[in-house]
Amino acid sequence: MEEKRLGTTSLVLSAALAAAVFVATVVVRIPIPATGGYLNFGDAVIILAALLFGPLVGAIAGGVGACAADLVGFPVFAVPTLVIKGLMGAIVGTAGGRSSGIPRAVGSAALGEAWMVLGYFGVETWVFSRSMGLDAAIAEVYFNFMQAAFGLILGCSAYAFLRKQRSIHLPS
Predict the structure, then answer these.
(1) pLDDT tens digit string along 55-104?
(2) Which of 38, 62, 132, 159 fits 89 for a cystine, CB–CB 3.0-4.6 Å?
(3) Residue 97 and residue 59: Cα distance in Å, rounded?
(4) What CA–CA distance (Å, rounded) separates 143 from 55?
(5) pTM
(6) Answer CATH for 10-28+40-161 from 1.10.357.10, 3.40.50.720, 1.10.238.10, 1.10.1760.20
């Protein structure tokens, strides 16, 4: 009986956090004119979800939420985003572990964001090589790195803030 409740809780958390990733991705968009892409704050939510609730919730929230956002604006990236952001959430949640200290949380977020930058570089090299050339994929590395830095800073800051709040019970 307890295992079913844990499954239901994880499912509800994953769905709610996927919606939060979606909103953080589509509501605040900073355009990148060189490629037609945009910066967003979805990574911060993925990092926070993975650090608070572990790799499974981080993977589902990150993959599904970011994929849904791409379906709205950039459908060609939807499937790669499902994989890249899903693995990012899994990496952060696995490396960081739930209730990890701040240095470990930052390190795991950096590892997850490094995967995101490399993953998108590979996909963008393939996608842009047909239309805009390799230069566009290389230009995106800078913007993906910026997004990674903001996501890491915001996600880890929110995690640190929540850890300090004694009135908030975080899972252990």
Answers:
(1) 999 999 999 999 999 999 889 889 999 999 999 999 999 998 776 789 99
(2) 62
(3) 13
(4) 26
(5) 0.89
(6) 1.10.1760.20
